[in-house]
Specification:
heterodimer; A: alpha/beta; ten-stranded mixed sheet; seven-stranded mixed barrel; globular; B: alpha/beta; seven-stranded antiparallel sheet; 40 strands; 20% strand; binds adenosine-5'-diphosphate; binds magnesium ion
Chain lengths: 366, 1056
């Protein structure tokens, strides 16, 4: 309505008009969409969106404001934010801020009033692409979009991981968490179960992890192409032989790569809170939260097997090591945003941790 | 529960007549269920007493029984059909209660019928308030402090312990019947007494009140493998305290954070899993707006009004999926028909917002209390889809089909500040408009939110609309802003002081036209195979590939008294006929409860308001061969003229003819010219004119406003003074249209639904009303074919139909309503559209009349279809009787007496070889059951003579007769043995089996009579207000037979 006009320009030349919201500067990155209807604050602060401009498919955003409780990381990570309607009211007893102010305060540029359904359909049909949010939608904006680095050309995990390890106390088993840009939800899920969580940078070596004497290792979510994380893959390959391992999202892809599998880029990824996943062992379907652009190739090395697939497109959603106590899932068992129906996977992991501790020879055998 | 294998034949129970709280949504669900079963190769046996449904079509089920929904009849049908399985969760509360009865009576066991879907125990754990509470406590789900009471004393002591206010919630009822919020013991005594009487197990829950909390619903599915999903959640704009059926509802929730959303979602999944439901259920929560506390309010272990809404809101066909689950399929084995590529085991993602607004019958019952509470009063609802909340809200308001179609309500503008404050604080049908008015007067959003307990988010959205109206008036808003916010051309025109056409012209010049987007269950993530559209003002239109020539059918909008499910039946049949004729059928409608808005029915569904602007946009996009306006009742018919004026081709009867039939003056002039007798009468706009007219007509007269449906504001006046008072009343309500005064003819009312093609006429038969003219045709009992009409009169009616058809150029339906009085046929109304009785007659004769009419409208000649000349169908082998059903138990203050204004919400049909047998079935199906006891009579002076005869019949049948003093005197004088009694005492004491109370004609309703009728209703004693009805009951009682009833399914389409 009123406000400064702005545009989203994609590398294929498609232009979407809207009104500028949030920080005044331009934004640039890979343009993705999520179909989650709630949880925009969790989306904004999910480090896995690093380097990406996120479009919300659900049109009404900002209605219940922003609260200190809904952070997945201490600050937003998206490169830009696109909505159909940015609410100028924030109605919730926990809310401390409104959408526009929030984006502005955190330096996130955005676009409101966009025909986001057109954008979603465009990306679905033509695949994800790079784009810029700018005040003018001319040819130079297209050129700028085309000049942006691709995901695999960037060290995105390096931007969201940590420099030094940190210890979060707990009375239960000590879990090493390889932080590739971990969501607070994963840490909370472990800590709620009593774990002592030792966070490591993604550059940590197996020796550094071992020095903490963990009872198990969790590989976190994170942004970008997993295949570029060669040192992390090496670390994973080693810890898998020593500790129970659980991989989540990027962590799942890292486990696959470490075991000798392959990953590839999906046309437009899975982002939303309604992805149905079939557990191949039980036949039961779970509705899951997902946020990923890469997937694991189903032709796994002999050491691993597929345990979960996506009911919609059959892509790999989970795998396990045939011998070692290691498994991983492509989705987020902790939700945030989205359902926590698969939270029991953390319990399953901790059961592996406990079992392994009871039979030390299994670890020593490595 | 062993399902799946071995299930070859399934009995589906429908929900019976439309009543408040149980409406067309069960036709939608039931029809979907029948089709889902057929897809699995299962033979479907259906029973439902409601003929105005698609589910009772021989096209939908293999065997259709239109019989009373009672244990006796169901038992007989089961004995005869021997189904393998029973689906009882699709017929609303009626179906559930009947299923429980069948099980309790051992019928299911005796005939080896497996209950499909949710197990009985789960149903009871959800429905029985006490077991439900225990189950929730067992699952550690929070429930409100409450106590079960089965008598008044227990209710009062429970409330004292809990603390006032308390909420009274009866068990096993629907639409909150008999419930209420009691601020003190006196109020509690009144509500609890009513509540105990309305619960079939005399059980009420006395519960701590959380009025003002958010009311949130989840629609959840679970399969036998234990996979659980939520289809969607819905937020009631009206917080706790207003029945969800009476609340404005928004989907998905707008003010819940992800944490809130997931907390309630997880609870919903735990509950459905804990209750072991197999299929769908609706779970209602109260959520504290100021903390994360919540309570489980209730679970409906079946498809419901909410599930129909959720299905339409998301595109996820809950009833279809629930049925597949019931026969043993798993969610991940059932295809998602919208995308065609995904499965039913997923949760829809929306990329639009849905607003539902209820439609209430207050326009029919001006004396009624318009305040809303825990007991539902709405007869129907509209749904609208938009990309923003204001857009969806404004579309929904337009869809209500009420003037003025905007947030400006003429009455609200005149309120004082104090009146306005009350209207904002107290939930009523006017509250939305009161809020807009308050904001218009400069009240802050916080003030309005505080007073109404409605979330400030919603108030702020209404504020945006009010601000835009203001900016338009000030010339500071652009047309684009207004359209994007959802304002119609008409509203913009009012704000800017232009004619609507000028706004439209300017808009078109600016290139401002809507685009259409698809409802696809997945927010665009997958290509959608299903053409379900809504409009919005954005960039991209999801244009369908042009295919075959197409025709648009206009639906009838929300269900209201006078325009009910019958019109949806006709709409659907028209679509079927179009598709069979090789056209693409396109529907425009906005009623989420109905079959016509199932995206599976038409080639394209546009969920849009039925206004000139909205329909024209669809026409412009579709470029159809034409538009069918004869099936959506008065709503679609009223669009014929403006559409035609805009150059749209209206198929069938020409618009000029429609105009004549709608304008009584023109119509009566025409009848006179043609030599057809009609009641003497005329139109006037003044009291002087009325006096002059009365001189011509004589007395009694019928006084009514022009251009109405369902006899709104119609009165019979016996004296000149009464007549003038009635005229004054109508003019006060609307001085811009004339008042009609006709001589009232107390004869036999007959009605015919003919199909004409300008030349030839098909007459399926003539209906005869049991009650004499003066009782609205929608409220009278009707026999088909007529039993007491002389042949000559029947001939004459045929001739008149043929004459009118030729003169008016009728191409399609002609509904003719006549009075046969003193040997003469008088015509008093013609409707050139499908009438309310079309489905009833179609089922009585076994012929799809709408499909024939549609062929004719497409240009086929009746002669080519096998009906040449003046073709009268041979009478069917069975007589059919239609009986009305009222929702008076929901409408406390409403007048229960029959009159020329329609008041019934639904109807049933009874069929039998013998007319009295058919009548008996119809009355039974309508719930008019006369048990042992006395007959109480209170008769208007005018009818005391006739009453003696009728009551004599009851006396002969062995009923003791009680009466008011004067009636008793008159009856005694006629030789009857009568005991004088006070009506209130007699009813209060029990032992009365039937009340016959004929009120004084006109509006001179004595308080005593009104109170008597209300008390009878409360005591569940049948109360008839016409001697004709009473006589019919006596005939039925006299002919009562012993032994099981003979049941016979409807015959298939007669060799067509
Ligand atoms: N404890 C309560 N406090 C406040 N309002 C209530 C309470 N319980 C129910 N209500 C209101 O009453 C309405 C109808 O109650 P409910 O028992 O759900 O009837 P029904 O079974 O017909 O759906 C609810 O939709 C809600 O708005
Ligand atoms: N002249 C009349 N004499 C007797 N009864 C009449 C007369 N006109 C109408 N009625 C009664 O009023 C009812 C409603 O009138 P009608 O004109 O059919 O209105 P609507 O448009 O609501 O159907 C009729 O069904 C009939 O019972
Ligand atoms: Mg309820
Ligand atoms: Mg009529």
């Amino acid at each position: 309505m009123n406000g400064r006009q702005g545009f989203l320009v994609l590398e294929d030349g498609a232009i979407f008009s809207g009104v500028r919201i949030g920080a005044p500067g331009d934004a640039a990155g890979e343009v993705v969409f999520t179909t989650s209807m709630t949880g925009y604050q969790e989306v904004l602060s999910d480090p896995s969106y690093r380097g990406q401009i996120v479009a919300m498919a659900y049109p009404l955003i900002g209605n219940y404001g922003f609260s200190p409780q809904a952070w997945e990381a201490p600050r937003p990570h998206v490169a830009g934010f696109i909505v159909r309607e940015a609410s100028d009211v924030a109605s919730h007893y926990l809310s401390t801020e409104r959408l526009d102010g929030f984006l502005r305060d955190h330096g996130v540029s955005g676009l409101g009033g966009v025909d986001t359904r057109r954008l979603v359909r465009h990306l679905r049909t033509n695949g994800l692409q790079r784009g810029v949010i700018a005040d003018a939608g001319g040819a130079d904006a297209v050129a700028r979009a085309r000049a942006l680095p691709l995901l695999h050309e960037q060290d995105l995990v390096g931007q969201v991981s940590r420099h030094a390890p940190a210890v979060l106390p707990g009375a239960g088993p000590r879990i090493a968490l390889i932080d590739c840009g971990v969501k607070a939800g994963i840490v909370d899920a472990l800590r709620r179960r009593g774990c002592e969580v030792v966070l490591f940078p993604h550059t940590a070596t197996a020796e550094q992890v071992a020095a903490a004497y963990p009872a198990g290792v969790v590989l976190s979510n994170g942004p970008g192409d997993p295949a570029v994380l060669t040192s992390t893959i090496r670390t994973v390959a080693s810890v898998v032989e020593q500790y129970p391992v659980m991989g989540i999202c990027l962590g799942h892809q890292l486990l696959a790569l470490a075991l000798g599998g392959r990953t590839y880029k999906l046309k437009f990824g899975h982002r939303g809170s309604n992805q149905p996943v079939v557990d191949l062992t039980t036949g039961r379907v779970t509705v899951t939260t997902q946020n990923h652009g890469y997937a694991v190739d189903p032709s796994l090395p002999p050491a691993a097997e597929v345990t979960h697939v996506n009911l919609n497109d059959g892509t790999v959603e989970g795998l396990r090591h045939r011998v070692r106590p290691a498994f991983s899932v492509q989705f987020h068992p902790e939700g945030r945003p989205g359902p926590a129906d698969a939270e029991f996977l953390y319990d399953r992991f901790l059961a592996l941790v406990v079992d392994t501790a009871r039979v030390p020879s299994a670890v020593d055998g490595a | 529960m062993p399902t799946g294998d071995g299930i070859k034949k399934v009995l589906v129970i429908g929900s019976g007549p439309i009543v408040i709280g149980q409406a067309a949504e069960f036709d939608y669900s039931g029809t979907q269920a029948c089709r889902a079963l057929a897809e699995e190769g299962i033979e479907v046996v259906l029973v439902n007493s409601n003929p105005a449904t698609i589910m009772t079509d021989v096209e939908v089920a293999d065997r259709v029984y239109v019989e009373p929904l009672t244990l006796e009849y169901l038992t007989q049908i089961i004995a005869q059909e021997r189904p393998d399985g029973l689906l009882g969760t699709l017929g609303g509360q009626t179906g559930l209660n009947l299923t429980l009865q069948l099980s309790d009576a051992g019928v299911l066991h005796r005939y080896g019928v497996v209950l499909l879907g949710t197990p009985l125990e789960a149903i009871q754990n959800a429905e029985d308030r006490e077991r439900f509470r225990d189950a929730m406590v067992g699952m550690a789900e929070p429930v409100l402090r409450s106590a079960i009471a089965t008598d008044l004393a227990a209710a009062l002591s429970a409330a004292a312990a809990i603390g006032y206010p308390v909420v009274v919630r009866p068990a096993f009822t629907l639409g909150g019947t008999g419930g209420g919020i009691a601020p003190d013991p006196d109020a509690l005594a009144a509500i609890a007494r009513r509540g105990l009487a309305s619960s079939p197990i005399s059980q009420v829950l006395i519960e701590q009140s959380v009025v003002g909390w958010k009311e949130i619903e989840y629609e959840v599915m679970r399969d036998a493998a234990g996979t659980c999903i939520t289809v969607c959640n819905m937020e009631n704009l009206d917080p706790m305290g207003v029945h969800t059926g009476d609340s404005i509802v928004v989907a998905p929730s707008q003010t819940l954070s992800d944490a809130d959303y997931q907390r309630l979602r997880s609870a919903a999944l735990r509950i459905i899993d804990g209750l072991k439901i197999a299929g769908g259920c609706n779970i209602q929560f109260a959520l504290d707006p100021r903390s994360d506390a919540y309570y489980v309010i209730e679970v409906n272990p079946r498809v419901s009004r909410s599930s129909a809404l959720a299905s339409k809101a998301t595109g996820y066909p809950i009833a279809r999926v629930a049925t597949k689950i019931a026969v043993g399929l798993r969610l991940d084995e059932i295809a998602n028909r919208v995308t065609g590529v995904t499965m039913a085991a997923f949760e829809p993602a929306l990329d639009y917002v849905v607003v539902k607004i209820p439609r209430w019958p207050f326009d029919k019952f001006p004396a009624m209390d318009r305040r809303l509470g825990t007991q539902m009063k709405a007869t129907g609802e509209v749904m609208a889809i938009g990309r923003t909340f204001p857009e969806a809200l404004m579309k929904a308001v337009r869809s209500l089909d009420l003037r003025p179609g905007s947030l400006a309500s003429p009455e609200a503008a005149d309120w004082t500040e104090a009146q306005l404050a009350r209207a904002v604080a107290e939930p009523s049908d006017l509250r939305l408009f009161a809020i807009a008015e308050a904001l218009r007067r400069g009240w802050t959003t916080d003030a309005v939110a505080g007073l109404s307990s409605i979330d400030p988010y919603f108030i702020a959205q209404i504020m945006r609309l009010v601000a835009c109206e203001r900016a338009l008036a000030a010339g500071t808003a652009s047309l684009a802003d207004a359209k994007r916010l959802g304002l119609s051309d008409a509203v913009i025109a009012t704000c800017t002081g232009q004619p609507e056409a000028a706004v439209r012209a300017q808009r078109v010049a600016e290139g401002l036209t809507p685009v259409y987007k698809v409802v696809d269950t997945c927010a665009g993530e997958f290509p959608a195979a299903t053409p379900y559209y809504y409009s919005t003002y954005e960039e991209e239109d999801e244009r369908p590939l042009p295919a075959r020539p197409r025709i648009i059918v206009l639906g009838s909008g929300p269900i209201r008294i006078g325009q009910g499910i019958e019109f949806d039946y006709s709409t659907v049949h028209a679509v079927w006929a179009l598709r069979e004729a090789g056209y693409e059928a396109v529907i425009v409608n906005n009623n989420p409860e109905t079959v016509s808005t199932d995206f599976d029915i038409s080639d394209r569904l546009y969920f849009e308001p039925l206004t000139f602007e909205d329909v024209l946009h669809v026409v412009e996009r579709e470029q159809p061969e034409g538009v069918l306006v004869q099936f959506g009742g008065q709503t679609s018919l009223n669009l014929a003229a403006p559409l035609a004026a805009a150059g749209v081709r209206v198929l069938g009867t020409p618009v000029e003819a429609l105009d004549i039939s709608e304008d009584r003056q023109k119509f009566y002039d025409l009848l006179e010219r043609l030599g057809v007798r009609c009641p003497v009468g005329g139109a006037t706009m003044t009291l002087e004119g009325a006096r002059a007219l009365l001189d011509r007509t004589g007395l009694p007269v019928l006084v009514r406003p022009s251009y109405v449906l369902g006899g709104r504001g119609m009165e019979i006046a016996e004296t000149g003074a009464q007549a003038l008072a009635a005229v004054a009343g109508v003019l006060a309500a609307d001085a811009s249209h004339p008042v009609l005064i006709d001589r009232y003819l107390p004869g036999m009312e007959v009605e015919v639904d003919a199909i004409c093609d300008r030349e030839d006429v098909l007459i399926p038969g003539i209906m005869e009303h049991v009650e004499q003219a003066g009782v609205h045709s929608g409220d009278s009992i009707a026999l088909f074919p007529a039993q007491h009409l002389p042949d000559a009169a029947a001939e004459r009616i045929g001739e008149i139909a043929a004459l009118l058809s030729r003169v008016l150029g009728v191409q399609g339906f002609l509904n003719l309503q006549c009075v046969y009085y003193e040997g003469t046929v008088y015509v008093f109304e013609a409707n050139l559209r499908a009438s309310r009785t079309v489905p009833f007659v179609s089922k009585a004769v076994g012929l799809p009349l709408v499909q024939i009419a549609t062929r004719v409208m497409l240009g086929d000649a009746l002669a080519d279809l096998g009906y040449s000349g003046l073709h009268r169908l041979a009478p069917p082998s069975r007589v059919a009787v239609k009986a009305p059903v009222f929702s008076m138990d929901k409408l406390y203050e409403a007048e229960a007496a029959l009159g020329p204004e329609m008041r019934s919400t639904g109807e049933v049909m009874g069929r039998d070889a013998d007319p009295v047998g058919a009548l008996s079935r119809a009355l039974l199906a309508a719930g008019v059951v006369v048990g042992p006891g006395a007959v109480f009579a209170a008769i208007a002076d005018r009818e005391k003579g006739r009453a003696a005869g009728v009551l004599g019949e009851f006396a002969r049948l062995g009923f003791p007769i009680l009466a008011t003093p004067q009636t008793a005197a008159a009856l005694t004088a006629a030789g009857l043995s009568v005991q004088v009694d006070d009506p209130m005492r007699a009813l209060g004491a029990g032992g009365v089996a039937l009340v016959i109370n004929t009120p004084t004609v006109g509006h001179d309703r004595t308080r005593a009579g009104f109170a008597l009728r209300r008390l009878a209703l409360e005591r569940r004693v049948p109360c008839v207000t016409s001697l004709d009805t009473a006589a019919a009951i006596a005939r039925v009682l006299a002919a009562r037979r012993e032994g099981p009833p003979i049941v016979e399914p409807l015959a298939g389409p007669a060799s067509s």
